[in-house]
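Fill in residues.
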C-alpha cells in the first residue's frame, strides 16, 4: 500500500499545536499581552485560506480573534510560521492583512490585525521587519505598529528563555530541534516537560503529535532512536513519564475487565497501550504514512494496520455519502 508522505511537517505541527488554546494563551501571556486579560470563551481561531488572481496559493497559518476584557475590544492576531528565511514573507503578510481587514465587522472596536512571525530556522533572519516596502526601516513609536510584523526567532533563543505553560515550551522546543542532530539529546528535556502535564486530559494528543512530527521531520538516521526514547518513556518510565503511564493505565481500565486488583491493573495498562497504539496508527494513516512506517513506530502487526486503513477508508466513504 503506497501512501503519500506529509508535504510540510513543520507547518502541520505548528498549525495543530497553535490551534490548542493552552498553547496560544500561554504564548499571548508570555510574549505579547502579559498585562491584558483575554476572555478565551469569546475568542476563536479563524481559518484564512485565500487564493490570489493568478491562482497562487497564499495560506496564513492561523488567525486569532481574541476578546480583550481589559479594554473591551477585539484583538486580531495573524500567526505566520517559518522554518527558513523567506523573502516572500512581506508580500504574504500584506496579502493576509488585507484579507483579514476586509472581513472585520464594520464599526467593531478592535486592535490589529497584528502579524506575528514565529521562526525556528538555523540561518539568521535578515529580512526587514518593515511592511512598508518603500521605506524598509521606519521609525516606530508603538509596541504594535501596522508598519511592521513581530518576529520571534526561537532557534536562536536560549532554552532557558523559552517559557510559558508546559504546552508552549514543548511546542517551541520541538520546532527548534526536530530537524537538527541535537534532537536525540533534546528529546529528554522535552519528555521532562510532558511530566508537568500530569492533570491534562489531552496529554496523549501531545505525545501523539510530537511522535508524528519527529517521524516526519527528524534526521532519518535518528528517528528510530528518538522514537524508542518516547516509547520507552511512555510505557516503562517510572520517573520521567509516570503520569503518562498512569493515563494509559486508566484509559485501559475503562475497557479492560477487572479480574482482581493486580491482574486488573496489568490488563488495564496493556489495553491502554494497545488502544493508544491504534489511535496513533489511525492518525499516521490519515496523514499519509506508509504501513511499514506505522508498523515500525506503533509495534502493531501489518495485518492490523491494513484492517485499520480499510476501516478508515470505509468511514471516509460513509461521510461522503452523507454529504
Amino acid at each position: 500500500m503506497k501512501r503519500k508522505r506529509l508535504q510540510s511537517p513543520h507547518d502541520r505541527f505548528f498549525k495543530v499545536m497553535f490551534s490548542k488554546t493552552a498553547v496560544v494563551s500561554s504564548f499571548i501571556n508570555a510574549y505579547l499581552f502579559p498585562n491584558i486579560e483575554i476572555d478565551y470563551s469569546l475568542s476563536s481561531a479563524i481559518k484564512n485560506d485565500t487564493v490570489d488572481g493568478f491562482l497562487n496559493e497564499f495560506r496564513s497559518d492561523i488567525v486569532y480573534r481574541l476578546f480583550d476584557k481589559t479594554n473591551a475590544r477585539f484583538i486580531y492576531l495573524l500567526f505566520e510560521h517559518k522554518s527558513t528565511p523567506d523573502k516572500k514573507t512581506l508580500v504574504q503578510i500584506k496579502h493576509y492583512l488585507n484579507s483579514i481587514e476586509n472581513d472585520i465587522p464594520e464599526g467593531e472596536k478592535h486592535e490589529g490585525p497584528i502579524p506575528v512571525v514565529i521562526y525556528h530556522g538555523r540561518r539568521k533572519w535578515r529580512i526587514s521587519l518593515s511592511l512598508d516596502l518603500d521605506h524598509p526601516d521606519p521609525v516606530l513609536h508603538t509596541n504594535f505598529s501596522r508598519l511592521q510584523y513581530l518576529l520571534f526567532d526561537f532557534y536562536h533563543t536560549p532554552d532557558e528563555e523559552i517559557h510559558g505553560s508546559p504546552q508552549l515550551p514543548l511546542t517551541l522546543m520541538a520546532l527548534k530541534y526536530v530537524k537538527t542532530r541535537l534532537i536525540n539529546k533534546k528529546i529528554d528535556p522535552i519528555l521532562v516537560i510532558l511530566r508537568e502535564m500530569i492533570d491534562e486530559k489531552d496529554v496523549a494528543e501531545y505525545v501523539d503529535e510530537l511522535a508524528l512530527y519527529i517521524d516526519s521531520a527528524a534526521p532519518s538516521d535518528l528517528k528510530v532512536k528518538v522514537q524508542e526514547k518516547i516509547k520507552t518513556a511512555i510505557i516503562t518510565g517510572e520517573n520521567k513519564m509516570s503520569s503518562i503511564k498512569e493515563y494509559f493505565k486508566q484509559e485501559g481500565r475503562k475497557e479492560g475487565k477487572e479480574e482482581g486488583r493486580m491482574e486488573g491493573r496489568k490488563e488495564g495498562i496493556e489495553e491502554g497501550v494497545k488502544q493508544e497504539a491504534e489511535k496513533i496508527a489511525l492518525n499516521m494513516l490519515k496523514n499519509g504514512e506508509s504501513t511499514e512506517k506505522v508498523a515500525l513506530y506503533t509495534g502493531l502487526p501489518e495485518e492490523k494496520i491494513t484492517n485499520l486503513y480499510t476501516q478508515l477508508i470505509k468511514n471516509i466513504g460513509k461521510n461522503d455519502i452523507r454529504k
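The beta strands are 38-46, 49-51, 57-59, 62-68, 73-82, 110-119, 150-153.
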